[in-house]
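Morning F.,

Quick status update on the modeling queue. The single chain you submitted on Monday has been processed. Sequence for confirmation:
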Amino acid sequence: MTVAVGDKAPDFTLTNQDRTPVTLAEELKKGPVVLAFFPAAFSGTCTKEMCTFRDSMSELNRVSANVLGVSTDTFFALKAWADAQRLTFPLLSDYNKTVITQYGVVNPDMIGLHNIAKRATFVIDRNGIIRHSEVLEDARNEPDYEKVRSALAGLR
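Structure tokens below.
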């Protein structure tokens, strides 16, 4: 079952593309978090999505928001992709599929890829409460960035 607006966000620790552990609770101490699950590094829509977040970092920084990208890719793949796209925020490897299960965003079968992340975006406030949730059934679609911005603006 997918976590919903108003729920406490499940805490987790995952390894980022630089092999450093990242814990949600620690990130929330810095400000709200945009938690962006994506199916696979190096795919077209995922690249567009993560680059859109990269390109809006100055706007996100104004509201002290941090972006965390999460997929089931290895941190090796995430490192290569982050370097190629010059992504400036952590990409977290949920290789064991723990966090996608906690958040209820498991795609059981996407064109032969089993149990990977659905494209999903959550805005989590400093207290760990989910303030915006969007889970897309069609991975070819991008999240509604305007709704992400509105949710973050509402946290001021």
